[in-house]
# Entry
Amino acid sequence: MTALEERPAAPARTTWIDCDVHIAMPSPAALRENLPEEWRERHDRYGGNPFHASLYPRMALGAARTDAWPPDGSAPGSSLPFLREQLLDRWAIEYAVLGPIVRPDQAGMRNPGYAAALARATNDWVVREWLDPDPRLRSSIVVPVEDTEYAVAEIERVAGDPRFVQVYLQIKTSAPLGNRRYWPIYEAAAAHDLPVSIHFGGVGGHPSTAAGWASYYLEDHAGNAQTFQHQLVSLVCSGVLERLPDLRIVLIEGGVAWAPALVWRLDAAFERMHDEVPHLTRRPSEYVADHVWFTTQPVEEPPDPRSLARVFDDLPCLRDRVMYSSDYPHWDFDAPDQVLRTVPLDAALRAKIMTGNARELYRLPR
Amino acid sequence: MSARRSSVGRARPSRRGDSTARRARHDSSERSDIPLRIDATLRNDATDMTERNEPAEPMDRIEPVEPIDRIDPLLPMDRIEPVLPIESSDPSRSPIPGVCRAAAGWIQPEKSRHAAYVDGAFADRHGSVRHGLASGVDATDAGRTRRGRRGCGARDRTARRKVTPVPTPIVDANVHAVVPSVTALLPYLPAFWREQVATTAFRGAPESAWPPGMPMSRHPDARVPASGPPGSDLALLREQVLDLPGIESAVLQCAYAIESIRNPDGAAAVAAAVNDWLVAEWLEPEPRLRASMVVPSHTPGAAVAEIERVGDHPGFVQVFLPIRSAMPYGRREYHPLHAAAAERGLVVGLGYGGLTGNAPTGVGWPTYLVEEFVGMAAVAQSQLMSLVVEGVFDAVPALRAVVVEAGFTWLPAMLWRLDKNWKGLRREVPWLRRAPSEYVREHVRFTTGPADAPAAGLRHVLDDMWGAELLLYGSGYPHDVVADPRAAVPAHFTDEEATAMLSGTARELYGLGSPAGAR
# Structure
């Protein structure tokens, strides 16, 4: 907090709630130490036998900004003091919602017991090293998504801690997220009044696109937005949003601006094919409006900033659904005082994006 | 076996300019030389199919072929009798031999590849087009109202257009030619594959990206021909599309799922048959038509060979690549395909569909067909990213691509993200000299249907994507039936922009309309 006081330039009343901040264990050794004893040897010898993912030469080490490495050389996002210095204090972040990255391919571990052990170890580490020491932090419950039973058990285990504000999935899964195999996860989340967040990345055992593997990181990174579109279509058409009226979905790091076009296309298709999905009692756009939140980073940057403002006219529910995120410490970090700066948003909308929508979704006290 | 080998030698016609080449290819009744292998990479200098089908391996490796009279009783003999293509009286316009003749100098290289079509037929049509438009259009037509409701803001615009009729000719850049069944292709398949059809379960493409029962596959107003599925009948196409006031030409898309045929030789043979069928049964009888050729897209070398075989035919203006593929079309494996297309002035058409066997999303198989329909727009985005990021438009600067029937309202958001990421990652792709969006603007166009945005949103999208430059009117018939294409023009377009969308852009892209515009 002293750092904040030393920055008189920062307007006293400007705060942000950052909905996508990544933390990581400082080293592979730390990961091993956090695993329960019975998994350490198997971890050494076999790992989790992951789905193999895209590896592109251009990917930054740890996907991080070069200035995000803590002075002691540990991994970006692994030092709370450095996080305070670089993000929380510097920009007067009121709350930061953490997305723990213990291993980027954690969700894709094929050994379900190992994936569950990793998830447990991660969540306990988050409480101990992050949530307890800093009251500004909230976090996401890491679950072994591809094994529903273990995933539900992990939600049940930690959901009593109110500092866990959502369940954490990755956008790349083994099946589309509307698939019924995942429904128990949504039921458990809804029962605990927790949103289900779906973050950029992950590995699900499929090529990065429906047309096979992209060749370059640029395609892979920008192309995550297409996977978000497929997943949202799946969630809407599956009927899980009909079945769980209180379920809230948060799409993190997938972009925002594609939402109107997708919803239009969904509604138009639904008009002609609704008899295929008779379990839907409302138009797709209504489910999206009631159930789906978006975070900004990496927010689309049209050549004319007014184009982005019009996205909120094209899909008015977005006014209550878009939340600021920085993606610290990753290379494509969106600084809170820079992002959307040139976009002509009315003051009320800007306040909703920067704090209001997240405060309401996560029920964060003032 | 030796007898068979010698019969191959007998049946093979002389090399060049032999007008009996195609006849010989189809005349299997006394031939047992079954095409064994279409070795495109080795023999792409061949000038006709017969020669390309020459066995590349010793005959005794080949399974004995059933005598032609022992075919499956499911297929009556008369169905597999060779049907010879209609011989045109104009030697420059004969069906597939025209291609051979082009290669052999029948079509003068300095003359427009479209000249044979354009000179006569089009000039006449233009006159009637203008006449028809001047008489006005029924503003109460149901089809137009439907389009208007779909969000193009058509009704106001239509009213205004009615009082100031602009004699804009119309190119419908997206109508479908549906292969009714493998029977239609038999006359164009080589003996070996006819025999496969007759004696095995093979019936060509097993499924369709447009399942016949799916509502999108047939608009309620699309009439069903007596002889086959909607979109398979030229007479109905004339009635429901070509003879509408103002239509000067239409570009056929054939979404026959070549890519679902795993056997690469089978895919190549069926692709060739579809193209020959398109020429003989659509392009030849109807000069207002152009077509997208199909290729075995999963086997790029064979696809190039097919482009070389028929790509010079003046009726083909585009290569149809299904949006779903086993690997993205920007990859280097496909660069020769793009180059072969561009070299001939052929546009690459990324069309809705693709039955690759791979999941239609990056996260596995969705549950419902409606998900696939909606998701096709996202796959189109992946393909456009691939074409741009892999540098296809730098490697083949003359290449043009059209996204067919997969929407366009998604384009601005995709480009905003891609451009932003490119700023951070451009050192990974140093061959890109400009922002990705600029490549799209220069090289890629989109057919209009199906429109899905409300009027205000559509206007935002069009403003953000240089819509007046990038759109080609395309009805999607028989997936949609548009009684008045002018009603598809967004309300805020100027007359100039409307003209570009209805015909100008397509004419330029496909070399249609006038000798001056032809390439």
User: Anything to note?
Assistant: The radius of gyration of chain B is 23 Å.
